[in-house]
Structure prediction request, 531 residues.
Amino acid sequence: MPSSIQPIQLGVFAVIFVGVALVGVFALHWRKAESLNNLDEWGLGGRNFGGIITWFLLGGDLYTAYTFIAVPALVYGVGQLGFFTVPYTIVLYPFAFVVMPRLWSAAHRHGYVTPADFVRGRYGSNLLALVIAVTGIISVIPYVALQLYGIRVVFTAMGLASTSFGTALPLGLAFAILAIYTFNSGLRAPALTAFLKDGLIYAVVIVAVIYIPLRIGGYAPVFNAASRAMASKPASAKAAFITPPAAYSPYATLAFGSALALFMYPHNVTGVLAAKTRNTVRRNMAALPAYTLLLGFIALLGYMAYAVGIHVSNNNLALPRLFQVMFPDWFVGIAFAAIGIGALVPAAIMAIAAANLFSRNIWLAYVNRDSSARVQTWLAKIVSVCIAALALVFILSIKTTFILNFQLLGGVWILQTFPAIVFGLYTRWFHRWSLVLAWAAGIGTGTAMAASNAFASSVYAVHLGPLQFSAYAGLIALAVNILVLLVLDPLVKLAHLPAGVDETRADDYEADRSPAESAAPRPAAAGPEAA
Prediction:
């Protein structure tokens, strides 16, 4: 990597990054509401985003700076296993097409701001809502940290690590921009700047996957070089150009488990709830697979690094180094700015989502139930800055390996919210205490499996007598979660523990509602009514 600052790359990066951030800071004037002092406006953008805005917002939320860095790095490091991200997004959108419109309808009807709000309303349980909220907040924090890590990789590539202040000062400036950007404009900031972020990334990737092969003689040299590189790696690296049979189970379970988990993250739910109508959500789930094609192109960049002779000790530097070798400095600056903005947009949404959870499901539920909408919003603004600050502390004081491992564990944990949220969208059959105990079983199992791997991998080797296989720890923990739920639920009901009151009704899950209808009170439905 460069041992000195690359002035042209840094200059182009700074101009584009700061310019886009300023657009976000002034986004509060875009579709300006009478007041941003309520979470519907600050935290959900007024729940009024149409199809195009929602498409870019969700794309900006799902495909982050760390995706841009980590996917090519994983392909560069282990080969074909890194392509699991492509089938997992193929599985993801049909699942979300079916499930997310139901969540949108219930949230729009009852004014829910977070997934934990829905759980509280569905099961009449502040405790169940609390565990969903805490799981979401803890899972999001390392995700925000990884966005800052993506920016740090770019700073390192531009030579800032060689300066006396290293990358700490520019990371601090990036944090300040993120904090102001989020605090000032709420969800409107990432929604507006997602257009620019996705446009830049699409342009950079399309140019790269056309130009680089043209420079080196096509895709045959790319795949030949990658095949030789994978074959030369030691067995301990578990790298392969073609996935071996032993890796089928990890590959499939990682793809399937990740697909189930992704829309359990609160920031992705936030993007859904900001949509104007139920059909907006459905149309977006049908159109978002266009990003899967982009993701496949991004993954190929990991193989291209071998074809042009890139050798780095840190796999995360493979993509930046590839661009620096193949493109002029001005274009490298644009590519690095795309990565930086690709960190800013999702990090803001993640901080907003975590802040909404704290304000609604911790503060309002347990500290002050009489807090006004204005107090809830200002508290959320302050917490969003604290989330970003905590992520910065992670980056500056904790080894990156630990942050990566924490993020892997966060994925295992967030998947344990699946039964309470997804099952709740279709049935009220399960008792709230059964769901809490099953959640605890899943969290405990997933954490224990990750700890047995020294938190270095989310794939766990299962030994059940003669049956031996490896699978995604989050999916195994979810299976334990569901098994415990099925076993305990009849016992909890036999014990006659009080069931919460369900404030939703069956038709809440099926149709759009006008704001007037949403505000109109209705009697709560009691008992295990199926929706």
Remarks:
- The first helix runs from residue 7 to 25.
- Strands lie at 459-464, 467-472.
- Residues 514-531 have pLDDT under 50 and may be disordered.
